[in-house]
């Protein structure tokens, strides 16, 4: 059903604030994107043992999983004249930019053991800064408007800007590895890290300066954040997490996100291997920059074609239906890869991209908008304080859990199908199994996500009822 309700002036987010919030999301994507591509050079440029490099990819994630909910709770209960979120976004943005640069100032002449401990410790410090920036930023987005449809428009705008990072980062590998640009890969990594840090520092300051959340000055029931109350705070934190977990619509959002995102992440590297070993018969030289173009084109299509369409579908048919339609379209796109990925014509591989892009392109736009609706439901049931930070932290904890599991499961699938990364070519049987896995895994997880969301109950009508009840109970925030 199409929404006929016009957005009031107080619920409309000004374009300047949308741009600043989008800049923050560009940072949220640039950091993990750069980290992912730079991690490859731990092996090739700095001579890191593969097992140690794997630990450096996995261990910080466990640390991150602990800090996110804590930061969400802290920002929910903070009292300051600058609001609950913005002071942390400011400090976290500065800290994460500085530590990201320092993280990659490794010296290839140092021992592998020294570089391992340096990188591990700096990763922890970087993640503290990044958590201080990211978790309050996500919570701020949930509270920038209380309008059902304006929330989707805000998230659509921010995701469009954020996806530009994935147009850029595939080319980091090409730039760093080019001997005409840098004398060696280690120098390339150190230099590119400085560029990324400076850009993220500037962009990360924008939401702290320009974005505005709800007026929390009269928000009751906030916990006192002091050293003497740390144990009672921990108890309150666990109560907040328990209340979030008991919120069924929220758990459906988490489950569907885990399935769609995890299914994509498991096979994320498979397309690269299919390009190299199936389309170009093991020739990295012939493969050249085709995988980078493939990745960049997917991000561009998602940003400038898919997200506007999804936003329009959401306004016309509701967020749940927009998600189901988008995910179904992505399934068709994944299936098309069987015919489109062929050595006969490299250009055919780009045909499924628009349909495939509906999967991830719609996911975070719609799910983050629906999580904002869930925060209203939580306030109705559990009262103040509003817990945008806690819900945002738990939602992204699920995303990060999916990323960690995907790294393990992706490697397991490659092992099971007999893929040999050291071989110049792969057997016909292995390539067939690789192509089947590349299609079947995301199709199955996307299908399960549709099933999970089929009876999602928080419609536009219900969301507006909740908003009216809240405003009648505590006034307009």
Detailed description of the structure:
The protein has 477 residues and is mainly alpha-helical. It is 75% helix and 0% strand. It has 17 helices and no strands. It has helices at 15-44, 50-76, 86-103, 112-143, 148-168, 170-176, 185-210, 230-245, 248-266, 270-279, 284-287, 290-317, 319-340, 353-382, 388-416, 428-453, 460-474. The mean pLDDT is 89.
Give the gist of this structure:
By secondary structure, the chain is mainly alpha-helical. It has 17 helices and no strands.
The profile of the biggest β sheet is: none
Kindly provide the radius of gyration, computed on alpha-carbon positions and rounded to a whole number of angstroms: 22 Å
Q: How large a portion of the residues is in β-strands, by DSSP E? A: under 5%
Order of helices and strands: HHHHHHHHHHHHHHHHH
- Assembly type of the shown chains? single chain
Class derived from helix and strand content: mainly alpha
Overall mean pLDDT:
89
> What are the low-pLDDT stretches, counting only 5+ consecutive residues below 50?
none
Q: How many strand elements?
A: 0
State the end-to-end distance: 28 Å
Please tally the helical runs, counting DSSP H or I stretches of 4 or more residues: 17
């Amino acid at each position: 059903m199409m929404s006929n309700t016009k957005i009031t002036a107080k619920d409309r987010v000004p374009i300047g604030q949308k741009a600043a919030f989008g800049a923050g999301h560009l940072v949220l994507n640039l950091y993990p994107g750069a980290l992912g591509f730079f991690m490859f050079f731990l092996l090739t440029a700095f001579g890191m043992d593969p097992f140690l490099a794997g630990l450096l990819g996995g261990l910080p994630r466990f640390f991150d999983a602990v800090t996110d909910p804590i930061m969400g709770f802290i920002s929910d209960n903070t009292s300051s004249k600058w609001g609950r979120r913005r002071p942390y976004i400011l400090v976290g943005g500065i800290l994460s930019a500085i530590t990201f640069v320092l993280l990659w100032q490794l010296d290839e002449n140092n021992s592998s053991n020294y570089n391992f401990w340096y990188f591990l410790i700096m990763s922890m410090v970087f993640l503290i800064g990044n958590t201080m920036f990211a978790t309050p930023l996500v919570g701020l987005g949930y509270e920038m408007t209380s309008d059902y449809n304006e929330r989707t428009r805000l998230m659509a705008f921010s995701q469009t800007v954020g996806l530009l990072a994935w147009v850029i980062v595939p080319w980091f590998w090409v730039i760093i590895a080019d001997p005409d640009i840098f004398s060696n890969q280690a120098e390339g990594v150190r230099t590119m890290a400085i560029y990324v840090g400076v850009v993220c520092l500037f962009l990360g300051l924008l939401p702290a300066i320009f974005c505005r959340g709800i007026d929390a000055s009269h928000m009751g029931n906030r916990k006192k954040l002091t050293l003497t109350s740390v144990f009672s705070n921990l108890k309150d934190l666990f109560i907040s997490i328990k209340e979030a977990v008991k919120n069924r619509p929220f758990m459906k959002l988490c489950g569907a996100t885990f399935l769609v995102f995890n299914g994509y992440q498991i096979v994320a590297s498979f397309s690269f291997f299919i390009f190299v070993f199936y389309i170009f018969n093991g020739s990295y030289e012939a493969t050249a920059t085709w995988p980078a173009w493939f990745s960049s084109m997917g991000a561009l299509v998602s940003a400038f074609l898919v997200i506007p369409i999804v936003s329009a579908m959401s306004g016309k048919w509701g967020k749940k239906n927009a998600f189901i339609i988008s995910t179904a379209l992505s399934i068709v796109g994944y299936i098309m890869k069987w015919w489109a990925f062929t050595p006969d014509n490299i250009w055919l591989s780009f045909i499924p991209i628009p349909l495939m892009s509906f999967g991830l392109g719609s996911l975070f736009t719609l799910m983050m908008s629906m999580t904002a609706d869930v925060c209203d439901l939580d306030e109705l049931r559990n009262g103040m304080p509003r817990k945008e930070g806690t819900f945002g932290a738990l939602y992204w904890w699920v995303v990060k859990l999916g990323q960690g599991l995907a790294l393990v499961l992706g490697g397991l699938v490659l092992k099971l199908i007999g893929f040999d990364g050291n071989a110049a070519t792969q057997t016909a049987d292995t390539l067939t199994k690789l192509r089947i896995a590349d299609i079947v895994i995301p199709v199955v997880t996307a299908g399960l996500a549709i099933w999970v969301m089929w009876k999602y109950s928080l419609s536009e009508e219900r969301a507006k009822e909740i908003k009216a009840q809240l405003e009648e109970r505590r006034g307009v925030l």
